[in-house]
Amino acid sequence: MRSAKVFKRIIKRNIQSKKFDIGEEVAPKFYKTNFINSDGDLQEKTKKIYGRKIPIKTIISNEVNRLEKGGVLRHSDYEKMTQEQFKHFCTKILEPELAEHHNGKDTIQQKEKEWKLKMWHDHSDILNHSYVSFMTCFLYDPINFLTDEEYAERFPVKKKIDVQSFVERPQLYIFGLSGSSDKEQLTYTETRLEDLANVTKEVENIKPILRVFTGDNPARQFESGQQRGGKFSCVCGVPGSEHSNFMKCYFTEPLTLEERRKHVVSGQAWQSMASGVANPFQGLRKEHIIEELESRGIWLHDEKKPIVQDKLTEILHGIVRPPALCCLHPLKSTSELNIKYYEILACEPLHDLTNVIQNLIQELPHHVGENNKQDFLSFSDTTIGNKNQIKGSDARLYVVKLAKFSIQKYEDCF
Ligand SMILES: [Zn+2]
């Protein structure tokens, strides 16, 4: 067994020899601790610490190499295709409308080079310290990468692979000490923006587009500038009490990041962000609330504090500041910041679907008719059994199994 000391030495050596890439120092902070010195006095010590970042540019060029070597890149020659072949191809990659496009081949050539990035981050405690970790990866899209069938055709002797999971292998982007407050998490914004400004300029051959954020709450609330908890905790803007009102939810369009940013800067309270305030609408005095409403063209007869506060809450529907990446320059549009296509999901697919899947598996046996009931019951029993609460990742697997099971049953019948 290796002692911690030896282990530390091995790691240090590998970092020095660049075998381990721990990235660049980012987001410097001062970290205070206290200790008892040899005289028995309590002393305070301040240390400068950093988070670490592997620049997106580096991640992208490593990933391009890895995917190129893996043989999953498309590299199609559209000019050689006949119109019929091209039509067939468009259907295969789920872009049938491009076949009808008057310059479909040029468009597809361009789109093949547009690779979408996904971002994810979360908070966690390690040994009593709170850390934030950002991960990123390219999203699988058959317009950029081969389908499983094409891969098998191209490499008949190689083992079959799931191209999507090969492409979407998560890469560590930023890791650092950070509390869970907006203010602390925003310390990583500057370096994130620098990266985004660099990606389009510096990566040859492909055009990376930051496309989607897939984290859970509260990371999603942070990323979009929504309050955490409370009446308007959902990014969609529908109050929690109205979430079972399907009509209301159905007719509410979640705002884009640009719309959220514009909504914030259409008043005046946001200007306090320049002096370091992270949530400019929080704790406003009555006269400031009235000023804020008036700057948005809203004049109330009754100027009692609860009335004006309620009005502001209703207008903001949970928006507490601009989206995280817009906080440094609230007046810059999302196109200028290179995040025009960035979308923060309005739901947590894995968590939200867990209960639906559980219900489905438990209820289905009672709806498939007497002939199949027993089989579905025993399927339900072997997957869920007597578990009260299933985990999201398990639920995802169960629904895949359920699909397989049902297809097999269906095929057996005919
Ligand atoms: Zn919602």
Kindly give the count of domains.
3
Small molecules in complex: zinc ion
Low-confidence stretches: none
- Please work out how many helical segments DSSP would assign: 17
Q: What's the SSE pattern?
A: HEEHHHHEEHHEHHEHHHHHEHHH
- Rounded to an integer in angstroms, the radius of gyration calculated over CA atoms is 26 Å
Mean pLDDT: 90
Sheet with most strands: 7 strands, mixed
End-to-end Cα distance = 60 Å
- The geometry reads as globular
What would your notes on this structure say?
This protein is an alpha/beta fold. The chain folds into three domains: 25-215, no CATH class; 240-347, no CATH class; 350-413, no CATH class. Helix content is 42%, strand content 15%. It contains 17 helices and seven strands. A seven-stranded mixed beta sheet has the order 1-2-5-4-3-6-7. Helix 13 (286-295) crosses helix 14 and helix 15 packs across helix 17. The relative contact order is 0.08. The mean pLDDT is 90.
